[in-house]
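Lab notebook, bench 4. Still working through the backlog of constructs that have no structural model yet. Next entry is a single chain of 156 residues. Request: give me the structure tokens for it.
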Amino acid sequence: MSAANGSVCVKDEVVYLFVHNHEGSQPRSNPSFPRPLTEIICHCHRDIFNINHDYWGNTLSTIAKTDAVGLVSEINEKHLVPWAAICSAGGLDNTPLTPYIDQNSVHPNHLHLDGSKLRKEGFTFSVPKPSQDNLMEVLKDFIGMKMFPANALPSQ
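Model written out:
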């Protein structure tokens, strides 16, 4: 995204990009429709950290929406203490990376960024989609910058 912003900023004319709500208008069974980015990232995360991800069905999601504050509190309680322990064991006293979830981030604000206008302006994506190798490169950079605990990264 930073490269795209930089590319647009150096243009002489104003380029308007748009973000629109995307509720999965294309059926997942359509093989020509790309996998959702969330699914790709979850698979990379699963493969690196051996952590499975699952999605709640409509009933559980509806129930969770009725007590979003409680849900967020429970998730934060479950993840913040272990994250702090991992960081401490890895020698990190402070890092901007956190598993903390703000209550506002669980609202159903589905966004889909359409990159077609960027491509029309001549921008090319150097990384067309996330991969396990991309994520590992970012994590190793974060380790080098003392932002991610090396002990959290499993032996590869």
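Notes after review: The first strand starts at residue 19 and ends at 21. Residues 2-152 form one domain. Flag for follow-up if needed.
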